[in-house]
Amino acid sequence: MRELLVTYLRPHRKVLVLIAGLLLIQAIANLYLPSLNADIINNGVVTGDTAYILRVGGLMLLLSILLGLASVVTVYFSARTSMRFGREVRGDIFRHVEGFSLSQMHNFGVPSLITRNTNDVQQLQMLVMVGLTMMVLAPITAIGGIFMATRENLQLSALLIVTVPLMIAVIGYMVFKAVPLFRAMQIKIDRVNGVLRENLAGIRVIRAFVRTSHEEERFAEANADLTDTALKVTRLFALIMPTLMLIMNLTIVATIWFGGHLISDGSMPIGNLFAFQSYIMQILFSVMMAVMTMMMVPRAAASAERIQAVLNAVPEIAEPTTALATPLARVGRIELRDVDFRYPGAQDPVLNDVTFTLEPGTTTAIVGGTGSGKSTLVNLLPRLLDVTQGAVLIDGVDVRDIPLEQLWDLFGLVPQRGFLFGGTIGSNVRFGNPEATDEEVWDALTVAQAREFVDLLPEGLDAEIDQGGVNLSGGQRQRLAIARCLVREPLIYLFDDSFSALDYTTDARLRGALAGRTRDRTVVIVAQRVSTIMDADRIVVLDSGRVVGIGVHDELIESCEAYREIVASQVALEDVR
Hints:
By secondary structure, the chain is an alpha/beta fold. The chain has helices at residues 2-9, 13-45, 50-98, 102-108, 110-152, 158-201, 203-208, 212-264, 270-312, 374-380, 404-408, 425-429, 438-447, 451-454, 474-488, 504-517, 530-533, 553-559, 561-568, 573-576, and strands spanning 334-341, 351-358, 363-368, 389-394, 397-398, 411-414, 423-424, 464-465, 492-496, 522-526, 538-543, 546-551. The strands form three sheets. It has a six-stranded mixed beta sheet, sandwiched between helices. It has a four-stranded antiparallel beta sheet with strand order 2-1-4-5, covered by helices on one side. Strands 7-8 form a two-stranded antiparallel sheet.
């Protein structure tokens, strides 16, 4: 946690110095006021000197006003600094996560990453806010109060020898017990978020299989687990606060008891007793403020560990260390050389010894059974994943040597699940090219066979799209995703089973329109339907991560058993020969 705080608070050094100075002024004023109060009692009230009372009282009033102004300014700058701290940490987490590979995203988990960038950052932000005031003011006031109390009466100061160590021991016990509980709480918050996210995303499946009660039980279990841990923390603090209050009240009673005896035998003026009692209150309240802050430290420390784990994770998809010797040719020729890929922790590779070439101006289809590695292969081309062995080359250059943005600029990707962003149809299509004109957007929609349903919407391109495109059908989402790719006009098109939600007629019209649009580009299509890939210039057949056949449809029908099985599972062989 210390490393995180130092890193993000260092740019605010000047403001921190200002806050520290204001807090020092407040501490000095707070420590000086009881002494002035004692002077008024001893030299004004007892002697009846009204002028002295007014003069010293006026000074106390002036100090109080300055103290109030300093407090307002301190809180303002503390709040501003803590808000900026939170903004910068959240921004860095977001930017860092943007560089994660798909496997790293899966390892951390989406619910956990969301919690770390919201709840965990908020815990640290609150600590900074309170710490900038409490953590500086409390020790200065406590140490200064001990010095001033000793100055008022040495005998009564002996009470502090018992009181302060006792309170410190209580605080230490609290921290020791609370840290593991807060760590567990953050993990259990992740679990609650994960169950909730799954239920919201899969609500149709849950209802279709009549599993609502089961999911309610699953959420109740995660919720109860979090509640139990939170109750343990609450019980811990419920015991600590009354204990500290008891120590404080007993100290005040002892001060009045022993102080009264000292006054009665003339060893101590009455004003000094009031001042001593004020200092005791300041010392104990300083300890109480420290306790309130320390109550936040264990949870903030647990949150800091989780945030640091994200920030310290080295993105697997890293920028190349050296610049390209020559500019990329931008022809679009892709070569896979002896490519292997294995997910972290997996025993068997997903892809094994994959070698073939994708030529510009051709359409290459990739087919295979479920789990054969088709989508993984597509993700290797734009380097969303890195090969375990071998190499992927574009125009003769290893993709690991190409700057990421320059590499991604070559591709247009249409995933199987056409994800759309909250906004309008126009903004979603322009996500592929923010500078696209309305004519270019309509042209892309026409090629993608989406214009027919967009024309029916009263708002046209300004029709609202809910987050994820949930207010559209699966086929409509896929067609808008294809239009988003087309308006980008990339050098290489990747269609990852992105025609699966289309009917056969729309599929055929779309492929016909795409053929003219992508004639001089490199096109890769992952598909399950034989009708979608029959006319491809070349078909690559994968089986258990290996290439078992490459050729055109008629050749593979004759030579590749795996391809014949795929075709036979959909249509009669005699219909496609």
